[in-house]
Structures are given as C-alpha cells and as structure tokens.
Amino acid sequence: AQKITQTQPGMFVQEKEAVTLDCTYDTSDQSYGLFWYKQPSSGEMIFLIYQGSYDEQNATEGRYSLNFQKARKSANLVISASQLGDSAMYFCAMREGRSNYQLIWGAGTKLIIKP
Amino acid sequence: GAVVSQHPSWVICKSGTSVKIECRSLDFQATTMFWYRQFPKQSLMLMATSNEGSKATYEQGVEKDKFLINHASLTLSTLTVTSAHPEDSSFYICSASSSSEYQETQYFGPGTRLLVL
Prior knowledge:
The complex is a heterodimer.
Chain A (H helix, E strand, L loop, with lengths): L3 E2 L4 E5 L4 E3 L2 E2 L6 E8 L6 E7 L7 E2 L2 E6 L4 E6 L8 E9 L7 E2 L3 E6 L1
Parallel strand pairs in A: 2-12
Antiparallel strand pairs in A: 1-4, 3-9, 5-6, 5-10, 7-8, 8-9, 10-11, 10-12
Chain B lengths: L3 E4 L2 E4 L5 E7 L6 E7 L5 E8 L5 E2 L8 E7 L2 E6 L8 E8 L9 E2 L3 E5 L1
C-alpha cells in the first residue's frame, strides 16, 4: 500500500486564487512528521512546511499552511494568493518515528499558475 | 540558514569514466546526509543514507561498488559514480539534516545533472 498518496498529478489555478494540494498518508506510528517540498523546473528541492504528529495546531509559513486532519490521515498544503512563481512540482513526504530520518515520498503534484 | 551546496551542477562524461559529486552543508553540521536519484517526472528515489564517519547504508538495488559514498566530515559528503554508463544518466540530489534540530528537516542541494555519453 502507498504510504504517501498525492491524488492530483496536475493542477491549473488562476493567479491570486488559493490552491489546496492533497496528501494522505498511512502509518501505524504515533510519532511522525510530515513535510512539503517545492521543486521548480531548476530541480532544487525547497522545504516549505513541517507538521509533527503531536502538533495540535496546523503549521503555517507565510502563504503556506498545512491542513492537518489526523483522524483522516491527511496533510493538505494550502497556498493562499497564488503567484506565477508558485508554478512547480510539489511533494509531500513523511518521516516515521525518529529512526534514521528517512523520508517516504509522494508522487508529486504539478501546479501551474495561470496569469 | 540551512544552505546545502552541490557541485558540479552539470556534468557530461564519456562512458567508463568516474564522476565525483560533492555535497556540502554550508551553515550547519549535518549528522546525516542522503543521496537521491530522480528520473524525469518522477519522485525522489533514495539511494543511500550516510552518517559522518561511518559507512553509508544503501537502499536495496543500489550497487555500493558502483555508487561510492564518503561522508568524511559533518559538512561534506561525496558520491562517486564509478565507471559510468549511459544508464547512469540522471539527476542526482543530496540532502542534509541535523539531529540537533527538532524537526530534522532535510535540506537539499541544487542537484547535479549527469549525462553519460
């Protein structure tokens, strides 16, 4: 079974609109961390936001927020007021427990912002 | 903060040669470094995990004699692709994390595009 599922291969969004990128995860661990990364066409992976399994509040970083619904095992990324520069691949990843820091990656969502 | 550099960004080489890629954490000490490979339009594939001063742990299916990893210091890890062949052409990207950071976020280098002719 997929541990990290990103159901949207691609999305088109109008500039200045908010966008939600879906991510569901599967783990039996009580302690885990969820990460979102952005990969522009240049290839670099840019860390956006982190949510710990024990964090009671949803994480926010500027225009990025994470809609964490633990019971549903979902960790959707919300980008408010989208900009043309937000066009990129977006990856959701999970670290289970604290052992060896490995990340389990989703397949990614390609986001294109239309002017 | 949390800047990771990777060098070179592009390399083209002839089949049979070896290529060394460097990954450096510039402003923090990386207790663990990771090497990934990424094919076009796919997600990251973890190749190996390395801790400073110890042997790297390779993922299943990754040839350790083919992809030599050295993590000599808390700021430098190298990946050497030995006797490279066209099928080794790919995007290689490293990341670094610190156990002293609560989130243990992996911070990535800009990646290296390898083309083997």
